[in-house]
Amino acid sequence: MAAFSIMYETNANSCPQQVLVVPMRLEYPEESEEHSEECGSGPTPSALAKTAASAKSSEKKRGQHGRHKIHSKVHVIRKIGPHGEPLELEEVIGVFNNQCSCIVRQHVPITYSDWRKVPADLKGVVWGEMKRRFIYPKDQFDEDLCKRHVLFIAGKALRNLRSNHNRHYVQEGKTPYKDYNFITREVWEEFVEKMSTDKQRPRARSTLSSQRRTCYPTTWA
Predict the structure, then answer these.
(1) Number of Cβ within a 10 Å radius of residue 137
(2) What's the domain range around 96?
């Protein structure tokens, strides 16, 4: 419990029989941090900030990182380039590529080894989701051109995702469910099988070529 002292100023001129006592100020002694802890005070702002940051970090580890999520915010493109790519605003360009990659991750299975073999309806979903999140300038918008650019980025995103999963998960004997919770077990098992098969093909071709050289030795004139 805090202690304090009171200093008074008396005024006896108004009435000889009554003395008015008027407090001038209250003085509280300064408390040390140790005393505050002993009294059971609440957490300090810095402690609360550390707790919130720790909780946020733990939450990110349990689910997807923010950069791997599809955002609900709608962005406005001010200028389009000759290939349908956004040029302005500058901060939209990075978000554009990132969101296109995120949409591909969630809508196009990684079992497709070639973007050209992805069904047209899935490519249409990617294009539709991008149009929902990015507003093109009407006076510059060419749908065929802009769609072609989006699908070009989507194809690169799928190729990079497959390479990343093969290098960091398949080759290391790990599963991606914790980091990419939209990947189902069936899709992952099919992907692992395909990557294992693709890995053996170059070795098989090399062995076959070696066998042919052995069976048909080169003769010099």
Answers:
(1) 13
(2) 66-196
pLDDT of residue 145: 96
Residue 23 domain flag = no
Calpha distance 186→176 (Å, rounded) = 13
Task: Write out pLDDT tens, residues 82-141.
Answer: 999 999 888 899 899 999 999 999 999 999 999 999 999 999 999 999 999 999 999 999
Specify burial of residue 96 (Cβ count, 10 A radius: 0-12, 13-18, 19+): buried
Question: What is the DSSP-derived secondary structure letter of residue 214?
Answer: H
CA distance 61 to 27: 50
Give the Cβ contact number of residue 124 at 10 Å.
12
**DSSP character string of 117-144:** GS-HHHHHHHHHHHHHHEEPPTTT--HH
Q: Are strands 79-80 and 5-11 parallel, antiparallel or unpaired?
A: unpaired
How many domains would you assign to the chain? 1
